[in-house]
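Lab meeting tomorrow. Look over both lines:
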Amino acid sequence: MLAGTPRIVETGGAIGSAVVGGTAGSVLFVGATNLLAQDATNFVLDSGFPTLTGSSGTKAGLTLGVTVNQSGTASSTSLLINTTVTAAGSGSTILTDWQVGGVSVAGVYRLASYTKYVGREIGDTIGQAVGAYFNFNQSISGGIQGQATTIQLQTNNSNTVIFRGGVSEDTVIRGYAGQKINLTSVASTTGSPTVVAITSPADTTLTASTESIAVNVNLSATRQFSTGALTTQREMLIQAPTYGFVGASTITTAGTLVISGAPIAGTNATITNSYALWLQTGGVKLDSTITAPGTTTTQTINKPTGRINIAAAGTTATVNNSLVTANSIILVVAATADATARVTNVVPGAGSFVINTAAVTAETAFNFLVIS
């Protein structure tokens, strides 16, 4: 007989052995006092795992509940997967692989010297950090009609988001029918930001004798309206910006749309005709004001083109025009057949110009074009 306090020793531990006091589904672990413990709320495998059944409610295959209550400079990681790769083959080292029906929909792969994040989102490649990128290789689904859905992509250093198609695929950004595709930048309070930049690549050895268009704004689709008169329809509209300063300042020259120049011939290239702006067909409309016949007084027309009248025997007319400076070029022609009308000169000034002509026989109309 052994001396001391008698103990009951339970043996077992094999698969199928009973656990006294356990809750179905909870994961057992060694607690703080080195006793076998469980957390039936925050560390649970569903009792039906891997099959979730039921006709109501929501079941979770794995619940990992973490409460973070920190302060100061503390940080936390709810789930840490630390894989040490001492040697790897040419294939993928999969850190996590999330599947539905045996098909990968998200995960984190380690490929040689960079990390690849695969998710069920838009089918493009998105760059995040040096040597790393997100690859969303499937279409997004499951949005709720009538509710806003936001996909936010943010990098940790250069704030650059890159969309890229497959090796032999175009990159497509497509909006929902009836909705706009908005490119909106957050307002800056310092620096000299460019809101949108399109940079053409420095291509080499392109296909011979085949045109390569860098930017193609294709508006050729037919857009049908319901029956009804339409006063104005503009397919592309560039709205004028407003520039302001903290204190009194001057912008010498400002432009809403600027073309730096015509195409430049590079190495081994000859360009026979080079144009900065080429309108292949269709008319050009410059807004104008047409002064009614019988009105021969000084007119204010703040538009690039217009028409004024000079009374019979008259030799001069003044037009107030905010587009005109002392250096403007102004073209003027008689718009009425008159035996003696002949423009002798046009004198521009700040905010106006004067048309001088030989004395007209009868009231004569004159058209003008302002080139600032």
Summary: The radius of gyration is 38 Å. Residues 305 and 369 are 5 Å apart (CA to CA).
